[in-house]
Structure formats: structure tokens, C-alpha cells
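Encoded backbone
================
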Amino acid sequence: MRPLFMALTLLLCIRLEAQVSITVADLPQNGDLYYISNANPFEELELGVTGADMLWNYDFLSPIFQDSSVWVAPTETNPAYFFLWFDADIAEESGQTIDSEFFTLEDLYNFYKKTTSEFSITGQAGTITGIPLPIGFDDNDKVLDLPLNYGDTYSSAAGFNFDIPGIGSWQETRNRTCEVDGWGSITTPLDTYEALRVKCVVDIEDIFTTDGLEVPVAYTTNEYRWMSPDEGIPVLQINTQSILGLETVTAVIYKDTLIIPTSITAHSNLSGLSLQTNIIQNGTLQLIAGGGSDRMVSAFITNMNGQQVSEVYNGHIAPGTSLSIPVSSLPFGMYLLVCHQENGVAQVLQFMVAE
């Protein structure tokens, strides 16, 4: 009987050791740079299965495009955001964009409080039509309760209210309820990790005010994060929203390495224009005009979702010449250069801004 008891005790110890814990030491540090791949959200994903000693397999995910996540000291951000510095310990330069019917917030920064007991968003900042705007939260939005262990639950209520010059105002309340509902091993295209799964249900209500008219927008987002020791950011995050009563995946993001393709295929129905290189590392895109006649070209850059991020040129390009297009202001990622000729024919050239 004694050997059986010892064997069961040993087995229990082994299983307990597999239940990892996440502490403040496992989170991003100043100067960290991570590459994040965005995968197809229309893949069939099973999110309802979780619990103890799980084997999650997401090695089938493939990147559509990549982003970077750069972590800096709050004081390294734009001085216009200085009042956000006091409540934050670290800031993330995500390069992401928040789009609404009324405005677009670009070059997004998230400011975080990072202590031994919590990892919380204290504010956000970005630019609207080039104007830097800091957004301080009334209360912290607790993303992770630390130390994080299987079975933990926590919640927070946060919000903000600020004026948007020339547009109106934006007020938001968000109520977050989270549970660490699984532990086990997760495999992504990059690696296999021991991890905890954290599910957060975030109820959000936005009120946009413009010209005296209030427009309320309410929705619920589910955030699934797989956190692993020493990895800094989630090794996988899946976001969903309830659309027509169904939980619909809106984002699939996983930690990755920088992918630099040897070549990128350009989809084209207009001959004569090409890029000197598809991978831009010096901040300048070179558009080359081939043979033929002088042509009138209107060119602009979009992200991979088709949203225009800049207008770069409107004029003539002579055969055998090149046009230098500055792209140093664009965050790391994949983009499309869309060139329209005066006869209505268009050419789309794909390129990557690499850090």
C-alpha cells in the first residue's frame, strides 16, 4: 500500500508543477520588442473546451500580416502625453489604429501600471488628424491580476471622457470580468508552451457626442489570452464579439518571429511600374517606371485591411525614372501601394516595412 501511496503522491506533484503561475517578472520590460502575427479569424477555432491539464493545438494558424509591439518607459513617449506618465510604469507602442464613424485614432500607445499585484491599463494616447491626444482612465482597467494562478477570478470597472478638438467628445465605460479557466500546454506556429488561459468578458459602452447629438454604442468583447512564463506578452490571444447572437472571432494574434519573405508577389494589371525592393528597411520606398510613355499616376498607401494610411503622389512619372516615397512614419507591417493611371487602370504593389 505504501508504494502505491508514494506513486500517487509523486504523480500529484508532477501535475501540480505543470500548473504555471504568472508574476510581474514574466511581463514586458522597458526596451522589449515583440513581433506579432495576425492570423485568419475565419479559421474554425474551439474556444469552449478548457480546464485542467489541457493540450491546446493552434499550430495550423498562418500569418496574414504582422505587427510589432514595442515597450518603452512612459517618459520616452510624446511630451504631449506627460500627464499619463505619472500613473504608468511602462507604455506599449503598438502602431495600431482605433476607427470609428467619427474619427480615427492612430499611432496608438497603451499605458500600463505594472506591479507585483496587477497589470492594468491606466490610459491610452494617439493622434487624430495629426494632433496628439492623451486619454487618462478614471480607474485602471485590470488586464491581469498578479500573481496569476489557475482558478483565479477578478474584475474591474474603468472609463474615460475627453474632448476631441473640432469633432466633439468620446466617453467610454468598460466593465471587465475575468477567470483563469485553464492550464496546460499550447502549441502555436512558433513553439509549444506551458500556459494559463485567461478569459475576460469586457462590456463596453461608448458615447460619441458631435454637434450636440449623442450616439451610444454598446458591445461585449471576449478576450482569451494564453500567458506563459518569461514570454512577456500572450503567446496567443483570440478576441470575439457577439454578432447576431453568435460568438464571432474578430482577431487571432500570436507571438512570432519577424517574417521576411524572399519575395512578395505584386498583383498587377498595369505594366511598367515596379518596386526596387519589396522589403523596406531604410524608410524609403522606390517606385520604378519602366519603358513606354510618360504617365500620370495617383498613388496612395493602404494597410492590409484596405484602409488608406497616406497619399504619396499625384503627378507625372517619366519612363526610366524612379520616385522616392518616404515610409519611415509607417509602423512595422505589410502595406499596399495603390497606383491609379489616368485611363482608370490600377496597379497594386505589396511591400513590407521592416524594423
Notes: The longest helix spans residues 2-18. The chain has two domains: 21-256, 273-353. The CA atoms of residues 204 and 219 lie 6 Å apart. The chain is about 5% helix and 55% strand.
